[in-house]
Queue: 2 jobs
Job 1
Amino acid sequence: MLINKERLMERLNTLAEYGKNVHGGMDRPFGSEADINARKWLIYLWGKQLNFKVKIDAIGNLWAGLAGTENLPALVLGSHHDTVANGGKYDGALGVILATEVLNIIKENNYKLRHPLKLVSFTAEEPNMFNLSTLGSRVASGKLIKDDIKGAKGDYGITLGEALKKVGGSIENLQDAKISKEDMSAFIECHIEQGRRLFDKNLSLAVVPKVTGIYREKVKIIGEPNHAGTTVMSCRHDALIAASQLCLEFEKIIKDIHRDDVVGTVGHIEVKPNSINIIPGEVDTILEFRTPDFNDVEIIYANINNAISFIENKRGVKIISETMLKQREVIMDKAIISTLKRAMTKMDETNIELVSMAGHDAVHMSSLTKTAMLFVASVNGKSHCADEFTEEMDIIKAANVLLETILILDKELD
């Protein structure tokens, strides 16, 4: 069996019409009109056209599936269909459409699987108005419960409960969305790499052995606001200059680890009072770093604290640091990784492993079942932008590897 490439690409392009903006990018955040319409299209495709069994769980995750011939836990494929602002049409959506095609091929060939085979599109993987990313997979894995999120409010005062109702979910029945460990035999997420490692190697696919750890520190720099014209340079305690020095020190700390898979970013900063004629008195910023090796974490934190102490003494400011996120790296399942590699070999694809430097729904599913990821090359490493692109040839290869992997797992997994 081989997948139908024309059908696959047509569906990918159809999904990309929901939320397409005038800049060529995608605006399809959770709860938006584009998200709701994309969901309607997926439900119609799965339920009416393909005659899959379809379910919307309480957190709004979309499920579809085929029955197995034996009483075994399900094999599951999937990803997410929501996007970042002005994002691309491949991030997340590709994994959903590939899963759809795998089920479609198996059904139309009347191939009898031992295991049930399911696909899922998780709710709100990307950042959204409720500041609850990977929402669907976190609820499904039991990492978020109703009490954690019931009061969440987004834009224009809309509550999370109201948004869930629009997409067919129910915050009051949120516990029903939790998946039992006995429900699944394996979960595989196929996703674009979102970096340029595969592209630079001129390779199509990679197996993901590990998803990076993500660490975020909320930092407040308290200086002294004063008149910008009358305060001499030697008497200033400029919070923004201190923050700028911290940013540069942070960059040096990350680079000194000397690893391509360790990165750091200062992507958020607020200056107060933010006036042209007042020396900045306070700055709020967030330092984020990612590493797949927890041994790096203590070194990085120690060096950040040393930099903070040095800047406080030099600049006469006060710096307060608070940990926002300390999410360790997640190891993917060796058996599923091995099966993906076997499928790649059968398809004459080079076997390589690449750590995922972005978080994914697979991180949370790994707490429930044997989990792995398959990466597909991103042209020029572009993602989270309108220029995001993956070659059709690489997409077809990924689909056939996923199909072969499911056929192997169905025979070998109990």
Job 2
Amino acid sequence: MNLDLRVPIDQLGRFSRALEESLTSLREARRALEHVRSDQIGTPELDEACDGFQRRWKYGAEQLGDRVKTVHDGIKLSHEGYAQVEHAIRDAFRKAGTDG
């Protein structure tokens, strides 16, 4: 069995930044939709449909945002942890090289 324990730390960092950008985009989209009022659309049926969509979108977007933030926080912690381990290993090899 070949076990590869390498972790692409730079990819974790890029993934963390991408998740942060998606959270920002989601918040901006929610804010933009909050300014659209149903009475600006037209017919009563369309206004009612718009109101219903706004309620569902707000709830769904908030739930999605919460889940993405949870994943983002976990990835960020993993990235920081792996980076600390990598630095500690590098420092230990440097110290062993100067002590030997």
